[in-house]
Amino acid sequence: MVPDPEAGTAPQKGGWRLFGRSSTRGQENEETPGRRELPKWNMGILNDRETIEVPGSVLLLAADHNEPLGLRNAPARTSHSSIPTAVIRPSEPPQDEKKKTSDGKIILEPQPEESANDPLNWPTWRRDSALISLGLFCMVGGGMTPLLAAGFTDVANEFGVSVSSVSLTTGLYMMGMGLGSVVFSPTAILYGKRPVYLFGALLFVVTSVWCAVSKSFVSLVLGRIFQGIAVSPVECLPSATIAEIFFLHERAYRIGIYTLLLLGGKNLVPLVSAAVIESLGWRWTFWVVAMVVGFCGFLLFLFVPETFWDRVPHPRKKSSRPNFFRRMSSKQHIRRSDAAGVSVPPSALPSARHSEEGPTPAPAPNSRRNVHVGFATEAEEYHTEKDREAAALQDTSEKLEELQDSGVPATARIFAEDSHAARPDIIAQGPSSSDSSTKPHVSYMSDNIEKPKSPYSPGRLARQDHTETDTESQSVASSRMVAGRVPYTTALRAQPAKSFVQQLKPFHGRLNKDKWHKVAIRPLILFSYPAVLWSAIVYACSVGWLIVISESVAVIYREGHYKFNALQTGLVYISPFVGGILGTAVAGKVSDVIVKAMARRNGGLYEPEFRLVMALPVAITTVIGLMGFGWSAQLGDHWIVPTVFFGVVSFGCSLGSTTSITFCVDSYRQYAGEALVTLNFSKNIFHGLVFSLFVTGWLTDDGPKTVFIWIGIIQLILLFFTIPMYIYGKRARMWTVRKNFMEKF
């Protein structure tokens, strides 16, 4: 059971610990009558002063069951996300028997619908072919960053520029990737992922040809910028596509395949390009890329249809029993003449008659105190303070309840912590006002209203039998009101299974009515969230230092002491490839073991900050690898020494990237889609672009020893911020919930 914050939140003796010792704070408070105070610390993490229900914290109840805390405090979304998020509900008794795998051992999550057009109901070969096609495309795209690393010297000689200037082809390419992710992510949310993939592949081919035939260095740089824009969907969309077409128990294996292909591309494509540069010249790398991407684009066109599906739970059968969220229908008090659309004076309302019989509890003047924003479910139709002041009556017709659930834009659900009485809802005609003296014009709707004139006819309502979140009710309802158009998923539910040829349609229109600029700016707002900001810094460094080394490979191995040719320089990338695979394999397992042990010691309560313990091995491996790489290269050690240190850096950077992503997603799971864009944007712009402007020239002037020692110091300083993040992270999470920057925009 989740501790009840109203009944007292102090844990039982031995349940909450500070570095393994029971906190005495709760024992002291046992003598104090009334509400007990929370322990100040748990495992070195400062608790929130007011509640333990902080979004992101999870109570581990059993091996196969967890209870997320803080759901009622988590803000309701006001925009769609690229990664599908289901409606999170409190624990409820099972309604219908859940669908399971063919052997009956695993409950399918998410639950597929009966429609054959549901991507989860596609044949296994159809879904796996989509994964492989997308994975191959991502493999090529992922390796485009250091594509010319082994050929910097050749490009510099042909165009008569310095090697440090050629590094701009990498930095500005990453800038294009950062800008492209901000553009393509909201576009995919509004119009679907298939047109974005196809357009990206087409632009990828065009820009590759552009780079291959470029007549000047400026033309090459511009081509690389647009090539980065074309490749950007590789970073921000495939994980969402996998989540849309595979069940939860299938995703780990498929994501492993995708990660392996992406990681292999980042390290193997430079190796192949080095061989091409050595034998055919640097321009042929882009010709080969154009041909390979053309083939991958053809696979995308054939095997990656639109995977969007509005996966919202179906509502339960409505009950007339009073409950926590709504009152019993009062239609027995309404005369049929009133229900015919005739305005009713305030004195005739049921609330007025109740007031004559006895006092009715009124909202407290400061009803905005201690408010919490809940999740949008079909029963939780809360109204803002302005709506409640304008409220006069709850509609009582069953058809009108269906209309409200399916068509009326929902506002943020807000309820006071000190008041559990459900307030009546209304349908008010005319402008609402925060002035309590303003009386809205309230009318009723009857069963005999001429139905064809209404966009909410029973025929349409019958097809729209799914529960909507606050965002979905806003956007989908808007689409219903415009010329009676039916949303994409709702239309597919009523259609027979689409044939293979029908699924080849590249564009399906607009999928929702969110504002493009609002969806585009949301990832940037996440920089104000401390956990996301820390993750963005660590992720940018984890990937960025590898890019910095790739930009210096030509200077160290070709122009420096070793005098390698292009092919020998490319073979150096075998070391980071091995280190990256080992780091990815170790990071998840070790991190899970550590956080499970810490959660058990913390009385079964998991905090996302437990993931930050992995910052210690990240700091050790990356700092040693960076300093060792530069030092050994400066001293002219055997070529295997800096190459091994390159692999150590890759190992540590894999630990860092995995840790930053898991910590960010665990802290703000409802914003996972935007957070991935935030992390990639920071990696591409704030690190990849900025360091490419000066690191190669710095390397030429001061030597690799000085440069990489300072880079190691920078890495160490940035990772020191993990300590305050660990201590104050939980309070920071609750602070962002109270400020609610994302949904206020």
Features:
745 residues; mainly alpha; three-stranded antiparallel beta sheet; two-stranded antiparallel ribbon; 28 helices; 11 strands; globular; membrane
Structure report:
- This protein has 745 residues and is mainly α.
- The protein contains 28 helices and eleven strands.
- The strands form five sheets. Strands 6-5-11 form a three-stranded antiparallel β-sheet, with helices on one face. Strands 1-2 form a two-stranded antiparallel ribbon.
- Strand 3 and strand 4 form a beta hairpin.
- Helix 2 packs antiparallel against helix 11 and helix 9 packs antiparallel against helix 10.
The chain-level mean pLDDT equals: 74
Q: Count of helices? A: 28
Beta-strand proportion = under 5%
The amount of helix comes to 40-55%
Query: How many E-type strands?
Result: 11
Catalogue the unreliable spans.
Answer: 1-34, 86-94, 314-486
Radius of gyration: 29 Å
Numbering strands along the chain, what is their spatial order in the largest sheet? 6-5-11
Shape: globular
In terms of structural class, how would the helical and strand content be classed? mainly alpha
Ends: how far apart? 35 Å
Largest sheet: 3 strands, antiparallel
